[in-house]
Description:
It is a single chain. The chain has 103 residues and is of the alpha+beta class. It is built from 5 helices and 4 strands; from the N terminus they run H-E-H-E-H-E-E-H-H. It has 2 domains: 1-61, 3-Layer(aba) Sandwich (Rossmann fold); 69-103, no CATH class. The chain has helices at residues 2-15, 32-49, 60-66, 84-89, 94-99; strands at residues 20-24, 52-56, 70-74, 77-82.
Amino acid sequence: SGGQRQRIALARALAVKPKLLLLDEPFGALDAKVRKELRTWLKNIHHELGITSIMVTHDQEEARAVSDEIVVMNQGRVEQVGTSEELIHQPANAFVSDFLDLV
């Protein structure tokens, strides 16, 4: 299954004990149920191993579910950095508010 392939790929990446893990849309091709399961699995593994991960995603729900801190970017420029709660309750500007669909 797609979820199993993703777990294996992540396990291989983690086997070398990296200090930094870069994930680019890792769950994009998976169905919603598998995506949710893998998000929880990834967050648990991330905290157990104590590694830093950077995950690129355009899925706001995914970003909130997996991250400790979120960076919102616009055309290569950082618009805001903060926790999910900070971004939702104190968006830095109209772009962040629109991007997070807070209107």
